[in-house]
Write a structure and sequence with these properties.
Oligomer: single chain
Number of strands: 11
Helix content: 40-55%
Strand order of the largest sheet: 3-2-5-6
Structural class: alpha+beta
Shape: elongated
């Protein structure tokens, strides 16, 4: 039945070829020799007539070899049948009736049957008695009769005829075993190759994740401010990571080395270099606090709304005036897009942070810099709506 289906499909391919040649002139008339632009034009014609398409891979699978090993799916068969003017694959078969399966095998032997028929015949064993002279023949006439009764020529022929299918079965089993052995060796080779690749490139394939936590070098507690980490890679621009207060930095990588710069508004910048080949996956890095920045932040955010005593306000103002440079750049960043940023001078900033108000609880310093004398020369902050 399968061979009959293949013959129907081969007949359909011939009609597809004829249909295309009616309006097109490919580089070759035979459909099995089409390639490149011919296939593209055929796909266009198929979409135009049958309102469907087949991929280039399917074309090479079913049209470049003849006869094919298997036929396409039914949806593709229906599409190709519509292209040749039929309603469906069933309609094509109905209007192009081929002989019955048994008769077809006799008239159109399959590729497998052809190979079997062309195999060299195994010679039959025949018994050929030695030629004897007339004299010896006459003397041994009774023995000849006995020999004919016990081992006739036909017996040899019949015996070999019966054993011939067994020889074919043994050869078939031997061929199947050889194929199994070939696939077994192929599978073992692939598994071995994959093992070698995994062993040689395990670090590149299975990368490690390193976790870095941060603590205050003076207090031994966690960092209660946002951190910015810039990771430097060879021949690449730095990659910026922002770490929230109290969180650790998780860095998955296949590299053998790591170089990163850690910065914070209230801690001194720190550059860290690590050899990751034998480095621990978890590490705590200590950051040294900048006392000048800490003090300015403390006095900027110190809440005096509950006790607006003049002495406290005066103390806060004096500390800020002492630590902030007279020509410092102070920038307030707004959360909305309307105002953007605003620049304040030293006096306005101190007035803002010494005015008793609950909004100071939401003051967040984004960046702070100081000069060599310890004076703050840059403050960038914002007051959130939370």
């Amino acid at each position: 039945m399968e061979d009959l289906e293949i013959l129907y499909f081969e007949l359909l391919k011939l009609q597809i070829q004829a249909q295309y040649l009616k309006h097109h002139t490919p580089s070759f008339d035979e459909i099995s020799k089409w390639k490149g632009i011919d296939i593209i034009y055929f796909q266009e014609d198929l979409r135009k007539i049958a309102k469907g398409n087949i991929s280039e891979k399917s074309f090479y699978t079913y049209f470049k070899s003849s006869p094919v090993v298997k036929i396409p799916r039914i949806d593709m068969l229906n599409l190709l049948s519509v292209y040749t003017g039929y309603e469906s694959w069933a309609d094509f078969r109905k209007q192009n009736k081929l002989p019955e399966d048994d008769q077809l095998k006799k008239e159109f032997p399959t590729k497998k049957q052809t190979e079997i028929s062309t195999r060299p015949e195994i010679p039959y064993l025949t018994y050929q008695p030695e030629e004897k002279t007339t004299e010896k023949t006459n003397k041994n006439e009774p023995n000849k009769d006995i020999l004919q009764k016990t081992i006739p020529d036909n017996q040899f022929n019949n015996t070999n005829t019966k054993n011939f299918p067994e020889v074919k079965i043994k050869n078939s089993k031997r061929g199947i075993l050889q194929i199994i052995q070939q696939y077994l060796w192929l599978g073992l080779t692939i598994i071995f190759a994959i093992g070698v690749i995994l062993l040689g490139f395990k670090d590149q394939i299975f990368g490690k994740t390193f976790v870095y936590c941060f603590s205050d070098a003076d207090r031994g507690s966690g960092i209660q401010s946002e951190l910015e980490i810039r990771v430097f890679k060879q021949n690449e621009s730095p990659i910026l990571y922002k770490i929230k207060s109290g969180e650790c930095f998780r860095y998955p990588t296949n590299d053998h080395t790591l170089k990163m710069e850690i910065s914070s508004p209230f801690y001194e910048n720190l550059t860290v270099t690590r050899n990751l080949v034998n480095a621990p996956k978890d590490e705590t890095i200590e950051l040294k606090p900048d006392d000048y920045k800490m003090a300015v932040n403390y006095f900027s955010m110190k809440d005096i709304s509950g006790n607006p005593d003049e002495s406290l306000i005066s103390q806060k103002r004096t500390e800020l005036e002492k630590r902030i440079s007279d020509d410092a750049t102070i920038i307030q960043v707004y959360d909305n897009d309307i105002y953007g940023v605003e620049t304040l001078n030293k006096e306005k900033y101190i007035t803002l942070v010494t005015t008793p108000t609950t909004s100071l609880k939401n003051l967040k310093v984004i960046e702070m810099k100081r000069n060599d004398n310890g004076k703050i020369i840059l403050i960038k902050f914002k007051i959130t709506n939370k």
